[in-house]
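Our preliminary data section would be incomplete without showing what the modeling component actually yields. Below, a chain of 516 amino acids is followed by its predicted structure, encoded as tokens that our downstream tools consume directly.
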Amino acid sequence: MYSQIMTGALLGIESYLACVEADASNGMPGFEMVGMLNTEVKEAKERVRVALKNANIHLPPVHITVNISPAHIRKNGTAYDLPIALALLICIGTLKAEELEGHLVVGELGLNGEVKFVNGVLPIVLQAKEKGIKVCLVPKENEMEGGVVAGIDVIGVESLADVLLYFETRRRNETGKFSPVRINVEALFSDEETSGPDFSEVAGQECVKRAVEIAAAGFHHILLVGTPGAGKTMIAKRIPSVLPPLSIAESMEVTKIYSVAGLLREKESLIVKRPFCNPHHTISEQALAGGGRVPKPGMISLAHRGVLFLDEAVHFSGPAIELLRQPMEDKKVQIARAFGTYAYPADFMLVAAINPCPCGYYPDRNRCICTQQQRKKYLSKISGPILDRIDICVEAPKVELQDLQDKKAGESSKQIRERIERARLVQRKRFEGTGLAFNADMSPGQVGEFCVLGKEERTFMEKAFSSMQLSARGYHKILKVSRTIADLDGSPEIKVSHLAEAICLRSADRQDDELR
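Predicted structure:
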């Protein structure tokens, strides 16, 4: 007897529908599986056979053939176990084919018949809804994740026995314990906690906080240069607190990435806070960019719509730093394998922190013992092309005693965030219909359109271009940052004062040849 079950599979962070076909026929007893399958998929036949036995369902001595289509796409993962089991139950007459019409099934099976957590349920449910599927049967641990998708019934099951009970209750037109999961997405965002590290805890460093505010408003990349203990890491960890909350669409994007990577916590439905990724400097290139035998998102993609913080950036390997070049420009990571090319989104705000020299105390010659050659070698680990892609570079000076003893609290993250939200509202109106979101996203042509300079401002930039020996990219970076400063000031035009501040925010990487 022939049967087929609809299931879902992953291709990068996107999903496609796959069909599990099963046929049980007379002949030499056996269990064959075809369809361009990886090892873990081929092993499903043993998991399914034992899981059915332990659920008191015995397969007759027949020849079983299972095909997973489309056959030209390589299949991996363990989410095919449950659909294979249900296809076999139809073949032996335990279930009827019409009972599974309009259903999509995913889930890994334990040998005891337990249905286990799988990766990527959110993109699979989204794809199922798009293709007109009415019901998704998913592992109980994944039901909250799938339940955020409106317009489709998501049912969580714990075991094969649960699945059989589900179809039995449907035959009796009962719901029982199998009510579709409904997640109030808007309530998740309204319940978001705002507690955490706050900028009011940062003593002094007003110039650095101003630079961070500008960077957050326009989603610009920023480099912090300063001595040990100046507060670079402390400030960086508070940047998410001044970023506006994720929108529902952004939250879906981020959650899909974490779902595919298998990093959603049990019973977690949506990620409602902007990611903050702080990899250790020993991270490999593959872990940073993503990849593997079965490609998965790397740290760059996990920081999508949030912050990627590289503390002590010069200690990261040269190749790891250099692979940031393309994602910083293209907002995505492409990974090519023999059996396909995967694209992962990577629209992140890079925040890097470094010391000015190996000992960390330059230019204090009472404490710094580094030679000019040592400084040059140390700082050259961040190449010119990477520095050129960083919009803002600011020095974090040593914190003075009077700042530490000052009992008056500084501006809170909430106050800073309100200004940033106003600036971002201006950007949304400006870029409506263009596909852009932030000033940092503008192409050279769009810079010319949206960063129009007056006569005085053009003269000022001509002098700056010549004296600072700017590249074309550096010139455009200054205009983008000045546009953000003008937005924070509520000014429709870019003025000389805005250009001057933007230039100052790049002066730290031009003060020495070593930082160029």
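Confidence is low (pLDDT under 50) at residues 509-516. The chain is about 40% helix and 15% strand. Preliminary results of this kind motivate Aim 1 of the renewal.
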